[in-house]
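just leaving the lab so this will be short. what follows is a protein written twice so to speak, once as letters and once as structure tokens for the fold. can you read through it and tell me how you think this chain folds. thanks a lot i owe you, the record is right below.

___
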Amino acid sequence: MKNNEQAPFPSNLLDEDVVRRILESGSPEEIDRLRAMGMDQETFDLYRHFAQLRKVTIEAQLREVAERTEQSPMASDEELSAGTYCEWIEPQARDAVFRLRRKGYGTVNSGFGIENRQTITFDAPYFTETAISDSLRAELTKEGVVIELKPSSISMFFNHPASLLEMKRAWNRIEEALPDLGTPAPPATSGLAIAFRETQSDPEFMRRIAEDMETKGYEEYLNDLGLTEGMLKNKRIVDIGAGTRMFAGHCVRMDITNDVFSVEPNNGTTYPNEERAMGSLWSKEEREKIDGHTIRGTRESLPFQNETMDLMLVHGAMPGTEASFEQETEKMQMEIDHTFAEIIRVLKSGGEARLFPFYTKEYHPYRTPWKEAIDQALDRLSKNSRCSIRIEPVHETYIEGISLPTEMTARIVISKK
């Protein structure tokens, strides 16, 4: 089959679902009947590749959706606009779909079609004048990809057994070539999209999600930082990098302590959807306490006077991690050194700081210089006669989406004499 030809599909097999099932996992007799309808071996092998890849992709996608629904059911603003969780969008088109929506193209559906087709359909005829450039068409054709542009859809036909990664790269190149329309796409208006947003905004749903988020978040703090409720009772606590402030919220709601401060660079608005959910859980009095103890600040420059905190917590906001990604060694070291200096300054005598996660073994190359910088900072801190340092193992936990065993993860405990 030539690169600029679309493989023919038997016109007298009208039921796409039946054909797809045969291509995915049909019996030898079904396959023989399908091929007898006029499909040559090369075309059959190509279509079967895409049918089986689609099956595997959707099975993995369903697992992703189930995990998302169980672990993090609160939708982001972009998901609310699209009217679906990102996991419901097939992975090869997912990034392109959201970037297209940011550019102003309202998407309806995307992903595998019948045959060797990939398609994104839109809610309006955006492409009556806009076209894919001849140069991009020629590049993709040379790679065995034929573009079909209609007023309200873009399709690609792969004339070779492409992988999901190849499809993703092709979609990304098409998205990059399309002009920005200047305004993000309006919210999707399909029945499913409207129902999704209604569910997400339902007060009972919000409260149930908020309770689950807060309970899980609090339990993660206890497990990962090695805390008990008794260690928190009536203590003066600061949560550095507090995010949604669910830890402070739980402490206030459960009357564990009213004196817990949340420090965030942007004053607790990093996660607006989660914040809305938590707001449905807190009473007016509780919100006033939590908001009153939310302070704009950073790990390296804490907005507290000397020796004012009994307990200082860092959960998932370890110093220097962002700089280690960018390989900015000096910035990474500065953030680490300043953070530890601030912890010692703000801790009361007899107080403790607990930081998670620390890695006793490496699981990714970019962590090596970061771990070395932390080790060096702790070594310098250990020479301070007023400090003692412990590295404690942590039971199995999830970090950055990766399940790490106990022997790889730890917390740092700094005690001030």
Summary: Residues 16-177 form one domain. The two ends are 77 Å apart (CA to CA). The first helix runs from residue 16 to 25.
